[in-house]
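Re: that chain you flagged

S.,

Sorry for the slow reply, it's been a week of failed gels. I finally had a moment to sit down with the sequence you sent. For the record, here it is as I used it:
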Amino acid sequence: MEQRSSEATVHLATDSGLLAILVPSGLQHRKRDFSWWTRQDDLLAEANAGHVVPIETGQGGGYAVRVTFDEPGRREQDLSAQSAEFWLQVDKDEEIAIVTGEDLSFFDLDSATTIWVTPGPYHVTVTRLRWTEEPDDVAEDVLPDYLVYLRPLGRDEVPPLLDYIPDLSSDPL
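Prediction finished late last night. Pasting the structure tokens below so you have them in one place:
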């Protein structure tokens, strides 16, 4: 079921060990290529073009992802494990979607959670959180596995260029 908002927490299950934040209009040219996202060079090219933010989980399973425009709070900072920098180029359709790698095969985004944003370039920081290290009696609400923080790219700011897809594995450090 499509959710329209400017912030969301989504629970996803993947067999491929990949989650993604994407700009659907930027990936239209991949619509008939069902395995493009399994080729590292193609995935890297789309990430560097600002069309997709791949989140490598290291294994299949269920994951919670929070996408927000709010800077990480103290609790999230204290439990951050590792982060990676990306960017997205949001076109005039003003939408980004939160999906699994498997969703990239058939490009069926009808059930994807959609975030609506102002068109333009965005700096994206993905942080894996170690929420399991938090004492149960301290946490009133459980943190997600991944925090995705978006902010508009500054005028003089250059989008990050990746040499490889960062490993944000949920495996214990």
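What I noticed first: Residues 4-152 form a domain with the Substrate Binding Domain Of DNAk; Chain A, domain 1 fold (CATH 2.60.34.30).

Talk soon,
D.
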